[in-house]
Amino acid sequence: TLLCNGYIGCSPLYPTVAISIRTLAVFRQTHRVCPRLSIQAEVRKLCHMHNVPYHRYLADQYSMAYDVYLEILHRVDIRVKKAMQHDSPDWRLKNACPACFYKLEDEPPLQFSFMCQMDGNNSLKRTNAAVRRQEDRVDTRKMRSDYWLHASQVDQFKDEVKVRQSMHGKQKGMAEDDEDFDLDSDSNWVDDKSDPVSVCIERWKNAGPEQCKRMFALFDECGIFLSACRHGTVLLICDMIQSGELAKYPLAVVDKLIDVFGDDIAAAFDIGCTFEKTLAKSSLGPKAKTHHLRMVVGAFHGHAHNRGCQLNWHPLYVPGMGRADLEGCERIFSSSNELAATTHHASKFHRWQAIEEHYKFWDEDKYAALSTYMFNHYREALKIIQEGSAELEELKLALCLTDSDFNGFLEQERAYLQGLKKEPPEETLRFEYVEGLENLAKARYATVELVKSGRHISSCERKLEKAQATVERLEDQIGIEARWDDKSSEYQAARLKLKERKYRKALDELERLVVQRLFELSKLNVSGTGYKLRTQIAKALQRRSEAIKHALQSYNTLAAKLSPPRPLLSWKQIVDYSFLGEFELLRLSRDDIREKPWAQPANREATIKYLQLQRAHEEIERLNAEMRRLRTAVRDEEHETQCVLRKLSESTSRSDNLLALEVERRWAMRSAINAVHTQRLDRIKRWAGFTGRRGAGRRLGSVLPGECVGAAAEQDEIAEDIPEHNIEDEEEVAQQLEGMVDFVCQVE
């Protein structure tokens, strides 16, 4: 009776308090657009509106009614999916984004079937009940949606990456038999400094040893790891349980994506370079290789990787990637960070429920913004092609270059960077020996001066004895019979190399500080960063700037002392994050690269323009396919929905008739969004630079009901025959669409 009158009771058997469905619906929509709004805040608001003192039990009652409301919506959703035949396994995943997955029969092949991005975030933690001196209430309810990868699916990869003892011994305080110690097995590439990936392992926390990825016992769930398509639609989520960002999470995500989508997937990860090696050494390695999985690094994070890494994994240097930055996970987490305050102390089920609700609404927003994404990216790519083509042609004429030269420059640079090897151990000993000789000379001079002045200090004698012992030890290790002096050729050669070594160390320190500054700048702009944390980051940036200035001064001093002198750097150069990739070129090697064609600034600038132009053409090619997919999906969805509505309405079953009303209600909003998509796609189609096919196509492997096929074909034919002068004015169309949306909102 309560439900029929629009109310939900706060207890199942003998309710004394009921809350209107309208109130719950308003809170749900408000919470979806403002995740910070908690049930407690909503109840306090209602108490003030109704002049009722607030009590904690009122929030508990509201929460119970809200759970029932969401369960009703979930069960209705199941019935709608069944009626629409959207209840097959992985249906949501296969149809999450029509631009990515609604492939057509006659579309040209793309280098990558689709692009996704994945990353972890620790904002959505859940505090352990024992820490709060409470006991978790028994709640057998599970996660409702198929967004989640269950713990069992993730834990099958927990032993994929074997534990390996560090060269410097196990870290103190670490358990020896912890099952989550999944340190990457082959660390030969960690110790080999010539491998660009080794630099990333030192630089990125989530690329380092798994022993370091521990989380305080304060939390049960320490965050989430998710993947999304290039348009930002969330595909998969898994809980990071009592750990940091372990390798098992991305391994489980990759395994599921390959199972569902098959070949030619491009996956972006902020440590994609390191993870590709981890993946190759796991049991998923042959599977990933067979299905041609390609790991890349996001465009922004890629600038914090060293140059050798960028040339292999940055999207700018990977053919087929287009203009996608693949940094959508940061935008997703920027939104979900606002949800964190309501999940830290929630029960396990309520945390799942809140995350599911948030990302369902996020995906609805991403679908509504699909045509906007295509509109903006198509316009940007066309601008790059129109302006960049002329600029590149001028540079090619001025520098006497061809397109093949640019690809050759990249190959030559890769070969050079691979040749930068770590100094051999015997050379390190020689450097220590030269430094020992210098320290011994200083200690002798200080002792002689003290003797001349008639003083005797035992500390100077101890320093002299220690310096003498160090030199003798190094002579034994190296095998030097006659001690070097400042006139010997061996001493002079080692001293020259020692200068180069100090130069390299100064360069490494400068690069490290610039990278840290980049990371802190990115944190400063994250939505949800509190005032105190922003203040701390701002102070750290101020200190970092002073440290960078000192490191820059030290670098320039040492660079000038070399023969020939190395290029001096300015503050303006190093604060540009895109300069990070150039640090590798300043490192010394046996060959002087300053005269190499690929190292010339003008040639490097032309190469970048060439690559940007190539990626812009690839973006146009992919957008042409995605736009036609979206147009076809919009057409097919309309006719599929109309067929289902007709079938349910004509049924003699009362429940089917009611279900038809629910389908119609949902379709009202969806059709308004689809109308906006069609209008934007039509605008793009009329651009002078548009190169895609017009009209809709036919989904690969799909068969529409007989009555829908004829209607769809008829609509395509009519749409193609509309003359240009009959297209409605843009402002008039926008006003009509706004009216439709207002009407739908009123009905809702």
UniProtKB/TrEMBL annotation:
Q: What is this protein called?
A: CxC1-like cysteine cluster associated with KDZ transposases domain-containing protein
Source organism lineage? Eukaryota, Fungi, Dikarya, Basidiomycota, Agaricomycotina
Residue ranges annotated as coiled coil are 457-516, 603-640
Q: Which organism is it from?
A: Heliocybe sulcata
Q: What is any Pfam family matched here?
A: KDZ
Could you tell me the keywords of this UniProt record?
A: Coiled coil
- InterPro entries annotated for this entry? KDZ
